[in-house]
Structures are given as C-alpha cells and as structure tokens.
Specification:
344 residues, alpha/beta, 17 strands, binds zinc ion
Length: 344
C-alpha cells in the first residue's frame, strides 16, 4: 500500500502535524484526485478553535477548498478520466436527494463535508464521489481554481442566488476579507453601486480596485455615513461578511425600505434587532450558507471570461508542511487566503 503525506489536525486548539496515510482507493462511483492546491479558510480556523460544534471527530485532515487532477477512477464513473483537471465540491449530496432536485444541495441534512466530517485535501490525494467533481472547461491555475470553489462561490451564493443583486441596487458590503472582497466584485459586475465597509484602509483600497464605488471606514459613524451616501434612504442590499453580532444588528439598522440583508459572516453569538426595524422597512433577512456545485461552475465561467480577479487571494502558496504558518497568516490577517500546494 502506497503512503502519502497529509496535514492532520489532532484536536481542538492543537497545531496541525504531518502524518503518513495510505493513499486512498476509489470505490464504485468515486475518483481519486491528486490535490494540486487547497485554500486555507476562516472555517479551518473555526475547526481548529472548536467552533464547528461537538460532532467533529478528531484527528481530521482539514481542507475543503481544493483543486486537482483525476488520478484514478472507480467502477461506474462516466464523464471523468485520468488527467482531467477538477474542482472539488466539498459537500457530498447524493444526486437523487430532493435538495439536489431543488438546487439546494448546500442544505442537504445528511451531508458529509470533506475536511470536516471526513478527511480533506490538506493531503497529496483525496477520494471523492465523482458527482461532486467539476471538470474545468480548460486548464486553470490550481491555486485560483481552489479559491474559486469557496472564497468566490460563497459570496456568489449570497450576492446572486440569495440577494439577486441587480444593476439598480446600492449594495453595502460589510467586511472586506476573503469573502467580502469577492462579494464586492460580484455585486459590481452585476452593475450595482457598491459601498465597502471595513476597519482597514488597505482593504478599502482593495475593494475599490475590485469595483467598489465608495468606501467607508468602519467606526461609530458607519451608519450615519451610509445614510449620507444613500441620501437618507439606506442601501437596497447589505451583505454582512463579519462574524459579529454588532455588525449583524448594524446591517439590519442601516438597510433601506424594502431592503435585503444577507448574513454571510458566521457568529455563534445572538444579536439584537428591533422587530420594528424589520417590520416598518419590510426587510428580508437571508441566511447564506455554503454554495452549490452549479455555483462553482458559474464562478469558473466568470473567472475564465475575465470577470473575476483572484490575484488578491493566491499571493503566497505554501507546502503542506507549512500548514500551521498558513493558518497563522490567516488568523493574523496578513493574507485574505492562504493556499497549500502539496506538491510544491
Ligand atoms: Zn471555507
């Protein structure tokens, strides 16, 4: 049995360690992928901090944002061949699930999540159900392809599928990180006027480069500034990308009449909202969780036609052995995304 290198998280609060694992074998309906790149994301920090709940079994190999090449296929796999470049959808939703039928496989209750419930792509190889693999129309830089599968697909789900942002909308994006920066460019591409909110001047400059028309430094005057910029009427859409109950409440307060508020940032803490703020303004509050495999296809197409820039997400690739530094970079805010390349 061949062995491979994997970066394993032994438990909550512990550093990642390198281990040797057997190279997994694809069963019927599965394919083995040689992992070329895997993004390191805020949910990996949550996993390490114990924020993904008590049902995670450790040790686990993280890694849910991955791209690679098909290395072996099991029986009964159609449409995929050894050598095909693929993006990996980390949710396993059976094709016959009713959630798949209604286009909401991201919510399938029985899902297993690669890199959380089962070992993920901080490894040289992973085996995945063939139906969860997305073949690329043409070759894409592996780091770019990896971050498209989550860092771009997650805000795509929020901006396009949930909020249905259009050219007539004024959209406020709160938090310009790995998700918010892409919410900015996706909303701007749809023709919306985008106002970026962040504590960081540097991130606001990035937001402007990605298409934000205006930017507001996050402080106690944020709501007043947004009100001023929208002539007192408030934005049509607020995309809240910060894991903060205060920012959740602010998003609801600042939204204009008839507005849509999308909560993308993950906070386990309760927040307070005035029911009257929701009722008088007839707000629609959307939760936005994950994305579907079709949304990965959509962002790949946007990337290939030049509509999406991911250069701000893929600056420094590290080998698997530097997984802890990659997590630290993200935790310290020195990068918006880290990418691991097992074959670097
Ligand atoms: Zn993620």
């Amino acid at each position: 049995m061949r062995s491979m290198r994997a970066a394993e998280l032994p438990g909550v609060g512990l550093p990642i360690r390198m281990v040797a694992r057997n190279v997994p074998h694809p069963g019927a309906g599965e394919a083995r992928i040689r992992v070329d790149a895997c993004g390191v994301c805020g949910s990996d920090l949550l996993l390490q901090d114990g924020g993904l709940g008590p049902n995670v079994t450790f040790p686990v190999v993280p890694g849910h944002e991955a791209a690679g090449v098909v290395d072996a296929v099991g029986d009964g796999v159609d449409g995929l061949a050894v050598g095909d470049q693929v993006a990996l959808y980390y949710v396993d939703c059976p094709p016959d699930s009713k959630f798949k039928a209604i286009g909401r496989e991201n919510l399938h209750p029985g899902m297993t999540r690669m890199g959380v419930d089962i070992d993920g792509a901080f490894a040289e190889y992973v085996v995945r159900p063939a139906h969860s693999l997305i073949k690329t129309p043409r070759y894409i830089d592996p780091s770019a392809l990896a971050v498209l599968t989550d860092a771009v697909a997650t805000p795509y789900h929020a901006v396009v599928t949930r909020a249905n942002v259009s050219a007539t909308d004024t959209v406020v994006v709160i938090g310009i990180g790995g998700l918010g920066s892409n919410a900015v460019q996706l909303a701007a591409k749809r023709g919306a006027r985008v106002i970026a909110v962040s504590r960081s001047i540097e991130k606001l400059e990035l937001a402007k480069r990605l298409g934000a028309a205006e930017s507001v430094v996050s402080n106690e005057y944020t709501r007043a500034q947004i009100s001023h910029l929208t002539n007192g009427s408030g934005p049509d859409v607020v995309i809240q990308c910060v894991g903060s109950p205060e920012q959740d409440a602010l998003a609801i307060e600042m939204a204009g009449a008839g507005g849509r508020v999308v909560l993308v940032g993950a906070s386990a803490l309760p927040f307070q909202a005035r029911a009257l703020d929701i009722l008088w303004k007839e707000l629609t509050i959307f939760g936005s969780c994950r994305f579907t495999s079709d949304e990965i296809r959509a962002v790949i197409d946007l990337y290939l036609d030049g509509s999406i820039d991911v250069s701000h997400l893929v600056s420094g690739a590290r080998p698997l052995e530097e997984a802890n530094q990659a997590l630290d970079d993200l935790r310290n805010g020195t990068v918006l995304r880290s990418v691991l390349q097992p074959w670097l």
